[in-house]
## 1
Amino acid sequence: MASELRVGVIGVGMMGADHAERLVTRTAGARLVAVSDPDTARAAELASRYDGVRSVGDPLELIADDGVDAVVIASPGFVHEEQVLACIEHRTYALCEKPLTMDAESSLRIVEAEAAAGPPLVQVGFMRRFDPEYAAMKAMLDSGQLGRTLLLHNTHRNKAVPESFRSEMIVRDSLVHEVDVARFLFGEEITEITVLAPAPTGVAAEGVLDPQVALFRMAGGGMATTEVFVNCQVGYEVRCEAVAERGTVVAGRNSTGLYSTVADDHGGYWGGQVPPDFRARFARAYDLEVQAWVDASRRGEVVGPSTWDGYAATAVCTAGMESLATGQPVKVQLAERTALLDGARR
Amino acid sequence: MASELRVGVIGVGMMGADHAERLVTRTAGARLVAVSDPDTARAAELASRYDGVRSVGDPLELIADDGVDAVVIASPGFVHEEQVLACIEHRTYALCEKPLTMDAESSLRIVEAEAAAGPPLVQVGFMRRFDPEYAAMKAMLDSGQLGRTLLLHNTHRNKAVPESFRSEMIVRDSLVHEVDVARFLFGEEITEITVLAPAPTGVAAEGVLDPQVALFRMAGGGMATTEVFVNCQVGYEVRCEAVAERGTVVAGRNSTGLYSTVADDHGGYWGGQVPPDFRARFARAYDLEVQAWVDASRRGEVVGPSTWDGYAATAVCTAGMESLATGQPVKVQLAERTALLDGARR
Amino acid sequence: MASELRVGVIGVGMMGADHAERLVTRTAGARLVAVSDPDTARAAELASRYDGVRSVGDPLELIADDGVDAVVIASPGFVHEEQVLACIEHRTYALCEKPLTMDAESSLRIVEAEAAAGPPLVQVGFMRRFDPEYAAMKAMLDSGQLGRTLLLHNTHRNKAVPESFRSEMIVRDSLVHEVDVARFLFGEEITEITVLAPAPTGVAAEGVLDPQVALFRMAGGGMATTEVFVNCQVGYEVRCEAVAERGTVVAGRNSTGLYSTVADDHGGYWGGQVPPDFRARFARAYDLEVQAWVDASRRGEVVGPSTWDGYAATAVCTAGMESLATGQPVKVQLAERTALLDGARR
Amino acid sequence: MASELRVGVIGVGMMGADHAERLVTRTAGARLVAVSDPDTARAAELASRYDGVRSVGDPLELIADDGVDAVVIASPGFVHEEQVLACIEHRTYALCEKPLTMDAESSLRIVEAEAAAGPPLVQVGFMRRFDPEYAAMKAMLDSGQLGRTLLLHNTHRNKAVPESFRSEMIVRDSLVHEVDVARFLFGEEITEITVLAPAPTGVAAEGVLDPQVALFRMAGGGMATTEVFVNCQVGYEVRCEAVAERGTVVAGRNSTGLYSTVADDHGGYWGGQVPPDFRARFARAYDLEVQAWVDASRRGEVVGPSTWDGYAATAVCTAGMESLATGQPVKVQLAERTALLDGARR
């Protein structure tokens, strides 16, 4: 194990600031050394909270810095391509928040560049794979004790989203997690996607198709159904039920620990709190994701979701947006699996 | 309230014998007076179990009998039309097990005959509507406290079925319950159905498409997703989750009462038993259904699912079988709503 | 099986009126023929609701009536002795609501009188034994699959009680159910009881010791702990956890079926309703209790809790009231088991 | 915030080795620099697993070392007094595993020595206080929204213990956690303890009183009941139910996340795994405990359970062992609260 990993964080909005705090306050083996953000005041403020952290104006300069071993990329998706390619060029380990890039072509360019440059460097931020329940579910399905996996049923609910969050963003930014979950749990590509919309809730912004129902066909013949409902008003509810030949497994059913009984004017109730948002629900997954990334980087390895995973998820969501617009099933076309790319698939 | 209802049971296989026992041992206000079955020995044996019960060879004679006020029709579906029409002719109240008939045309003939003959006489055996949880769910959704209902997610699993139970029977005999549930909870017709099949379980009989995934489009724009899996190996699992604008409701989640912890060679577990079959799960629903039918018949009324409900369910399942064969969505065409038929819709 | 059982109901307050309705509307094989109550107007009003039901002024006349085969005794506890003894004298089957009588001596007189008079006639109304969960729990413990039962933990909570409900009534009217549960599940007598009181809730009436904690020692060495809290504000929560050598069983954990998610001003919640009172929680148990009593009476038998069970429960509660007053464990002294009484124990 | 905390671990059995790994692999701001154990080979082996960790023969030398800022004391309880006093002498921060010492007198000597020496230095390892559910429960009770806390019901079950684990160790080593939980949640001292034993399980070692039932009386009048069952065969089940004036809170009910359905030869079941041991159940609590200790030490502070908490827990358990032997309630006598000691109570 190498000595401490010197880490930079690029983009210090909510997610990047979270990762910075995580690195400093509850991650072993890492040292936050630099942050970068177009909003330089925000970057400077964050840097000032911790000892020995510089604020760097140009993210590419941060990536190229010899004193930086690894970066967390939490900048907006449209600058990811340039930043990830710079990491590959400078042999800097990267944890890139999803989406890898905004379209399948640019994601594929990253896959190819990384594969051509040598051993992998990039982990994509599908944190669900590090959630203890999803990980245990994967292990249970892979053990074969329940036979072959036949179906998945995913539920993805957010309390509410801003008015600017439009119908296609529900596919690209919310459904994308379920795309990765289906690929992860089945261990197969998605070959076809259908995204349908019932009459929308009256609570969403005008014109936004919310909720949505998506169907995936898997390469091996399995299927997945998903409800995405981003203005459900209650809280952040994420569940996954896998149906196998001899049993089922559910993640997310018991995620809220504390259980209470209370009375109000209408009667007495038992139950618990629904997590308010993804940070509350997946706090542990993020911690484990970042710790695993730090540990792997120190060993000179990459674990977890690859750039191919990021590329495939983007390709599926692009097809999904087309399906939402047309109401028809849309086939997912991925790049041919060359020897080079097969290496990239890890 | 009239004096005791004199009831005959037609068809004394598993379901009919169950109803006979229910009438005698745990239903108030009813007297079982006659049974009929093509297997006359079986009918005679059942009659001999209870005081004052005759075995009648011809079911139509039983229906026409002045000493019989009402009949439970638990014979095979293909003789339902003749028997129900005889009930209408003789003004005999009937509780007809589902399916009302084997095809939409004959079901519609019953609807029309009943409507033409006067006040309604026939309740169709969709017992789910009498299950306390489904009934409470309906009441909660109708109360409006959660806003408009947007989506339903139904799960329908049987432990196993005989080899003779083929793909289209999964639609006609299993999915039909979820068809009625969707119509009941939304209070609307289904206008389109899609039935899809993933790669089948290896546990089902050769060539049987099991599990299946169905999508319903409702007249008001809502949608329902359904998993039907009739060889799931575990037990009888029926759940329904309704998603409304400001909350969700789930029936069937806590249906098994007793909760225990036990250890086996692999570790320690908490949990409970999954009901082995529909009779265990819906025992209470059947009791309440039959009591409600007896009570209504004594008042000269009909409650619960109507012949129109039976007709509509058959029409949807017919479309569903076509969808399963073609892989395409199929529109559901119901008869025009004339004044006559509107009366029949109750 | 004899023809219909002709039943009278004595005492038509909440409980008696409930039983009358149960007999008429959802019990097979019974005919309600008479009711009696000191409030003759109330009795007459109830009688007028159903066909062929007389109102009888004197309960002892009702019991002696040749046209009455069996009576439900739902009168106040202090008149039970006279009424039950009259049933024994006239060979009238009786379902006597708990408590059998107000003190152990009078209960014992009933036990002895019944035993001396011939085959048993009296069932005591500990309805919990007919609750499907308690019954399944008993079956599971008796099966031996979990080894010997070591401990019980009972929880008994009511939403609220009237101000007139004093500390000792918590023992006599609430705890008594847990006394019977412990005797039923262990299949043994209670030999010692301790009733302790923490600092009381501020919500109860002045001077009422609520909640209370009771400990039972069983004849075979087992123990039971019980919380009784009759002003818990939330609802009617009754649970029982049995701890055996190789596992545990819990009744009452999943008794509320419907499960929902909702949001209020403070956040989002999942959960369900707590039953408001014992009638909601034990509706099914009462139905099964009365049906079993009717069925047994028609066969000339008695099932369920015996007069000995009623006597023992009263003796334990009397000791419990002494313990509450003194803060000390109190031994329970039951009558010697003579051949006569052993017969009475069934 | 000071730079990295240089930590030594004293005692590298299961618990100490766990803490060493925790410090190295998932704690921020700490550097493991030395370990010590009477089994020098074991200490050397552990030291060799990590970069820059020395093995030190004499634990007091390790404590006195200027290159060590803080120590985790995971040695056997009977050497704690000497080691903790050395920490106080050398102003070394300490996280001392429970029990603080083996008897109340020596624990009180530590309290007094720490108080006399200046600002506090010692955190006692009652990790439950850092478990997210227990912490949330404490917050909910302290918020006052449920009124005053009246009762606690604790359940403490281990799958099995070695034959050397005798009756009194159940009080001292298992019940002690529930002692701390009661003091923590009520925020009050325990004034009286009763420990009772039902007829023991046949699965425990000969002569061991298992399970046990304990009752605590709190200074403010509240009570707590506890079941401790250390050979329950199933797994590690720890639950706590708090009963307040207007509602209840339960921790530990949903602690196992994954939920599945499976079939075996006897039927179909739903449920999940019971954690096999305390390390699985409280992994997160230990992580949070150690991180909080490291963070506080770097700030020059102590958080979490104090030496007074360790002393009080030992005093209660000593009384509990007397109660188990005599079958009588035993009063708990704590040292007078002088100004000095009040400071120590934090």
## 2
Amino acid sequence: MIYIDGGVCAPKGFLASGISCGIRKSNKKDLALIVSQKKAAAAGVYTKNLVKGAPIIVTQKNIADGYARAIIVNSGNANTCNANGIEIAEGMCRLVESFTDVNSSDVIVASTGVIGQKLSLEPIERGMPSLVEGLGDNSIDAATAIMTTDTAIKEVALEFCLGGKQVRIGAIAKGSGMIHPDMATMLVFVTTDAAISPEMLQKALTDTIQDTFNMISIDRDTSTNDTMVVLANGMAENACIVSEGEDFEVFKAALTEISLKLSRLVAKDGEGATKLLECTVSGAKSKEDAKKIAKSVICSTLLKCAMFGSDANWGRVLCAIGYSGAQVDVNKVAVSFKSEAGEVSVCSNGGGIDFSEEKAKEVLSCGEIIIDVSLGDGEACATAFGCDLTYDYVKINGDYRS
Amino acid sequence: MIYIDGGVCAPKGFLASGISCGIRKSNKKDLALIVSQKKAAAAGVYTKNLVKGAPIIVTQKNIADGYARAIIVNSGNANTCNANGIEIAEGMCRLVESFTDVNSSDVIVASTGVIGQKLSLEPIERGMPSLVEGLGDNSIDAATAIMTTDTAIKEVALEFCLGGKQVRIGAIAKGSGMIHPDMATMLVFVTTDAAISPEMLQKALTDTIQDTFNMISIDRDTSTNDTMVVLANGMAENACIVSEGEDFEVFKAALTEISLKLSRLVAKDGEGATKLLECTVSGAKSKEDAKKIAKSVICSTLLKCAMFGSDANWGRVLCAIGYSGAQVDVNKVAVSFKSEAGEVSVCSNGGGIDFSEEKAKEVLSCGEIIIDVSLGDGEACATAFGCDLTYDYVKINGDYRS
């Protein structure tokens, strides 16, 4: 399995485009299109928030038959809590049909941005000719067009071998704020030229997100628009995966690999973040307990602030373990902080141990920090992804709409 | 029921004191003592965090018989996750016995501050003579000595009539950070001269906290040391409350009133906070749903930032309602923001309505803001208390230990 360039355009038969059509006041790109030359098996996972973006309703309807060919996405407006939201989302699909050979019922639609502000089709319609004209090896343009407060493009692609054929999988994502996925993260679009049935594609996706995107939290706010979809157009010509077995595992491993990579990119680029935090929990009684603890630690506002300040305030880790809801013998807990600058153990058997504050400061001053929790109470483990809480998070979200 | 001065010393027979004994590096007061002249019925509620401060273990043991006479509290060190924590907490009780006529098994002990740092009895022992000498009408000194990052003293007292007798109830509290009580808030000490049995006192306390302290959240971090205790010494000479009935309801109403008052004070003085946020939810299918929604809204990091920036970003309210876990028909939801500057409706039937941004800014620029959520789906209601998320929260917690 090797990383390659090209993002969603790396697999055979996928084209992408991204433009500025004027939904945003600035001239930042705000409209993206991804098209597969062949009809592709499609699978999606969506937010569990009861308040759901209208595009999710339309996407669920359009991929109910297990297939799709195109993805249209705008940023700058979430098309959520709008009276005519469904109409607008369906209108976006019809615009794709009008300007390409894709049937509107084969279009996946997504939106991200402010909630509850009317979205007009006008700028999108005006932008369609140049959006379609731009279709090509332009994954970066599409990745740019779906960004909101993201500061970095999130794009990844892998090449691997499946049943003797060379297969590729690529993805773009947006994250930043309102990120505490309870199904998938804000927006993730994956393309692959693997041949796989819609049922097995959905299974691979559902399995994969549990340990990847669903283990991220930027701010514990589960968005209304979380959507992750995968399109598999079969152009790699591997023997189509229609059941579990070796090929399915290979495909799922590739999907998991790019999902983990994107999860870390999303966490590291959390709104205002200066550091990626990973909490690795081992020795738990059950996988569920390990996950609860890892997420509880990564979500602690107090710990996030301490990490911003490079302060080895491990009591906050213990505190978050204690209220996680997991069954744990606190007298067996050990905690250490790790980074490229080294490792410092701060807690053993639930109590403090002497450590060098100087060394701890050095370890915690790096850009990627692992908070390692060992429970000594079983075999299960889990990892959660988050970021520090900074002045800039407050600044960005104190006046997001203007 | 009228508010009076005097805090925990307002009821008959209670004396208090607060000094600086040197646990903290600064000369801020850090040791408090409250003593009842008569043995008092005692009730307590404590954190549900599995990581519990050692003082909680000792307090639970000492009031197991339903009675106590004194409360000793230090700030600057939480005496939690310390190998000899129990020994130190018991040592604090013994010091009270050595310097007063109170038996050590009648002492309630509490600590607040950094977790996992050794606490020495030495400064406490050195401070005991002046602490005991200071006992008097000094509720403010005690309230000051239990503060950590609190910026305001939290003290309150009420006078009311019970079975023909004038009865008083007083309390002090500390809040600020690591505040998401799951039993009681960080530290609340209540005194009353009412005569009430330990069983009925515990029942009144357990009932009261559900709608008061347990509805506060500053940062979703449930502390390891949350403790609320009530001492009732009976010196008002009312007929002792030994069962439910009119007198019990009157007493509980008084306890609820001061708990609500303190809850608002604790929320308003959350770490770094500039504004008190109250989320009032009505029209819910069940009380439990109403509480879930109110707490979810008040806990949303994104909404807290928007309130700091006086930004009427109501989509974040809808988002938090949607992921609250409560059953709700989002198409019936209405939201308005209220303050002393007026009221502005921003959402009706789950969708946006036109409103004056200027007026909204004015409403949200006040120090106390009500986020009013109407569900139109039932009769149940609830209120939660929180505060905005500011640069100062990040600053305070980025380097708390130094």
